[in-house]
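Journal club prep — side note

Before the paper discussion, L.F. wants everyone to see what a predicted structure for a comparable chain looks like in token form. Sequence:
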Amino acid sequence: MKILMVCLGNICRSPLAEGIMRQLAEKHNLNWEIASAGTGNWHIGQAPDHRSIAAARAIGYDISKQRAQQFNHAMFSQYDLILVMDRNNLKDVKSLARTEAEEKKIKLFLDNDEVTDPYWDNALFAPVCKQVEARCLAIIKQLS
């Protein structure tokens, strides 16, 4: 299974989802490839936001070595499942899909809800991190 997590800048939500899912998949002995990307290009090559790193570390995950990349069309062929954090990301990623098969790979990370972007509110990082962890565990249970 190859899963790509997508948010806007690839420094807050999707790196949390990538790092948490990767470490949980390893813990559950799943041979999954997990990555993340952003729909925007502002942070390419940068580490996750220091607040995401701290929130993840507080519950036992290290995401500090991850680096931001921008979503591109080639990723449709590289990944089996593309999980986006909100409806704007959903719209942006779907606009790049060229086939029905590509479009079917794209889903909201929270099924029918959005992961709140914590970028503008320091107090949101810890709850978003815990929400992402809970959803990653549910995805593992659902797909393994």
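L.F.'s comment for the group: The radius of gyration is 14 Å. Keep this in mind when we get to the figures.
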